[in-house]
Structures are given as C-alpha cells and as structure tokens.
Amino acid sequence: MDESTIKMTAPPPGLPTPRPGGANAPLPLWRRLAGRPLALVSFARRRPGRTILLIAVLLTAGFAAVAGGVLVRFQTHLRAARVEVGRGHNAAATRHLNTCRDLRPDHPEVLILAARVARRSGSWTEAETLLDRYWAKYGDEDRLVFERLLLRTTRGESGAMSPSLLARIEAGGPDAPLAREALVTGLLYQFRWRQAERAIADWLEAAPDETTAILLRGKLQEQRAQTSESLLSFRRVVELDPDHDEARLRLTTLLLQLRQGEEAVAHLDYLRHRLPDNPEVKVQWSRALALQGRAAEARAALTDCLRAHPDCPAALVDQGKCETADGDDKAAEEYLDRAARLDPGNLTTRHLHALALARTGKAAAADELETIRRLEADFERINQLIQGPLQMTPDDPAVHHEIATIALRAGQSAEALRWLQSALQVRPDHQPTHQLLAAYYHETGAPALAAKHRALARRPGGKQDP
What we know:
Order of helices and strands: HHHHHHHHHHHHHHHHHHHHHHHHH
CATH class of one domain: Mainly Alpha
Number of helices: 25
Strand content: under 5%
Number of strands: 0
CATH architecture of one domain: Alpha Horseshoe
Structural class: mainly alpha
Shape: globular
Largest sheet: none
C-alpha cells in the first residue's frame, strides 16, 4: 500500500477518530451508563405526557406488587393459624396470628381466632376485648355469638349455656368439638369432676383419638392427683400429635416430679426449639439437666432463664437453692424472699424461705412458719371441700363462699373472686357472698362496686334491678 492510499483512509479534519475495533465495537461501560440518564432526561423533555404516563404505570405496578406480596403473606399466615388453632397448638397459632394482626388487625377471622386462642390460654379479658372489637366492626354475627357462648361456658357459666351447646353437639359438624371443649373446660374450672368425666367419656366414644379430649382427660386426672393416669394421657396426646406443645410441657412437668430426668431431657430439648422464650421450659430444662448430673449446664441454663425472666418465681427458687448449696445464705434469702412475694401461695417456696430466714438469724422466720401452718390448714380445708361437698352438692353456694374466704385469707385474690363469682352463678341472691364482695372492693379501692354489692347484700333476696 502506497502513501497516497494511507492518506485517503485517514479521517477528514474535524471528525471523531473511529473507535478501536470498528464502528460496531461496543462503547466502554462507563460511557454507556453515563449516557442513559441523559437519554431519559432528553426523552422526558421531548415527550412530557408520555413520561408522566410511564411513571404512573411504573408506580401502579410497584404498589400492586407490594400489595400483592402483603396479601400473599397475610393469607399464608392466616391459613397456617387456622390449622394450628384447629389442632389446639396455641403457641404456634399465636405466632401466625401476630403476623396477621400486624398486617390486617381488624380482619374478622383473625379477631375470632385470636380470641379463641386467648380463651384457651386463660386470658379471658383479652378474649373479651377482641370479641368486643369484632362486634364494633361487624355486629352480632353468628360466629361472634358462638364464640361469646364458648367463652362464657369456659368461665364456668355453663348452666344457662348448656342447652345451646348441647344442641350443637347433637347436630355434629365443625362446631361440635368446640362446644364439647368449652363444656368440659368449664366443668373442670368448677371442679365438677363427675360431669366432666361423663362428658369426656362421651366425646372419646365418638372420637377415640381426639387429642383435645385426651388432653382434657389428663387435666381432670391431674386435678384428682392421679399422676400415673395423667402421665399416660399426655403421652398419648404427644404420640398422636408430636407438635402439641401444651401436652408435651405437661408431660415434662410430671416426669420431673417423678424424677425421670432422662425422658424429660428429650422432650424439653424439643420444646426449647419450639418455645425458646418460654420461662417454664427454661426452668424445666435446668432441672432436667440437674437430674442428669449435668450441674454446670444446669446452672448455666438457670442463669440464662433469670437473665431473660428475672421475676420468674420458679427460677428464683432454684437460684436460692443454688446459693444455699454454695453457702451464701444471705443471697439465698434474697432470692427466696422475692420468690415468696411473687408467689405467696406456694407452700414449698415459703418453707424454703423460712429456712433461709432461720439460717440468717432473722426473727421473721417464726412468723413465716406460723403463716405456713395456717396456709397448710387452709389448703387442707379447701381440698376437703373440693373432694367432698363440692362433688356431692356442687350447687351449694356456701361451699363456693367458704373456698373464696380461705383464698382471700391466703392472699389469692384472683382465686377468691373466681369462687365468689361461681357462688353467684349458682345463687345470685346469696347475701354472704355479696357482703364479702362489698368488703373486698372497699379494701381494694373500688367504691362503686363495693356500694353495689353492699346494696345487694341488704336487699331482700339480694336480687338486682331488672
């Protein structure tokens, strides 16, 4: 090639030098990225209408994607909660329902299911609040009426409620197990053992492997101090439904009482992963390790429990025992004093507290021992009333009233109110019960309620205005 040919192929002056690799060679990455925003700006200036429309479409698509994702997440957790509630898995159901309530707090099924779990867990005030919220949003729908009926029956108000629930049991269908559960739970709450036993037997005859019925049978056996029988019942529930946390935890409680640490450790290891924040599981894990001779691990587990739950009475008692074993009587007394204040009706705790007071030379030890003797006599009387007159004449308000009086003397206010309310359910015009309630509300700073019961106690028949 000669010199003239080379000159002809050179670009004319003023034109850009061709890119290496030819005209079709790609631009460097930094050039391509820098050019895109400029191109978008140029497009927006030339076609502002189309730009606005495009932005609106993109925003709409984005919002739809987010809303769709939220809806899918909500429906996924609601389906899971529905299954867990149906199987009686309260802790698992609560986790799913909490997510649902974060996303759609007033969804009707979420409110009903959350109220059902609260009722089963004994959180009756919370259940009532959730049902009131449902009523404010949706009115007196059938499922609200039914859930209120279940709640009242669970609280022991079974007299007026029974015909309606018995009708649902006879009709069968999805409401029948819920009706049976509420009836039996209410009977257990009132210590009506014979009626509860018959109801459970009828239920198991219709559905021999119904885990809720077997669980309630175990609870009945626990109330009757039939430890071996209740152990078998809870084992059966766990065999049928390995994910039933309540049954497994009740099983481990009995195993530890029987000092069967090896089996308890296996169950508790499972529960630790399912209920990692449950203080009862943490305490039982520590006790099971101690039974296995794993002292260092047991103490570490107890320390972990107290760090997460500093006011757990059972953990405080165990720590007090550890301090006693280490010879630190002052620290033991402090832990046991806190435990006794948090759980004043626990006789075992109070015995340990009295011993700690005696070791540190406190004069209060004698007073504590006297209190323990009085409590032991009171609890023995309550056991006699429950096992005798309450079973023979469950509708005698005097029995309920006497149990309430003893509970008040022991500082068990909630238990006392429970028996006073049951006395009035049996006989609304029972004047001694109104008198005791008037005195209780006067002492606790509720003058309106005190005046109400004082008036009812003075009124002939003790009847309220219609």
